[in-house]
Fold this sequence. Notes:
Distance between the termini: 70 Å
Number of strands: 10
Amino acid sequence: MILVNFHRCALMLSLSVMALTSTHTHALPSDRLQETRASAENVVFDQKKGIATYTGAVKVQQGSLVVTADSIVIETNTDGSVKRMIATGAPAQFQQQPEEDQGVITASAHSITYTPDKKHLLLIENASLEQDGAVMSGPRIDYDLVKEVMRAAGNNNGTSGQRIEIVIPPKTETTTE
Length: 177
C-alpha cells in the first residue's frame, strides 16, 4: 500500500521542472509557460528530505526541455525550488532550445547533473554535447550555461586514455541572387 500526499507530490514535480526552465537567457521564453509532463514506471517522494526519485523509462518535458533517463532524482530546496537534478541511464539525454534563433542543444551521458541555481550542466561517462552540427564528446563535459563555457577532460589511463573529440562543421556559403 502506497500512501502519498498527491497535491504535495504534484506541487513538488511542477516546482521542480519549472525551476529547470526558469532562466530566460538559456531556454525559450515560452518554455516556462508550458505545462510540465512527466512519466515513469515508479516514483518515490521523500517529502522530509525534499527528494523525488523517478525510475523506469523516465521522461520529463516542458516546452523545448526534454530529459529522458532510466532514473531521475530531483533534490529540492526548502522553498520547493530545484537544488539539483541527476539523470542516469544508458544513456541519459537532455535537450533544450536556448533561443528562437539558435539550434537545439542535445546532450547525452551516463550521468547528467543539472544545477539550475548555478545554470550548470555536468556530463559524466560517454559524454556528448551537440548544437548546430558542432559536437564535443569525451569522458566528461562541464558546461557553464551562463558564461557559455565548456570544459572537457580526457581520461589519461596509461596507453588506453580516452581523448576529447570535437567536430565543427564547415560554414556554408550563402549566395545572393
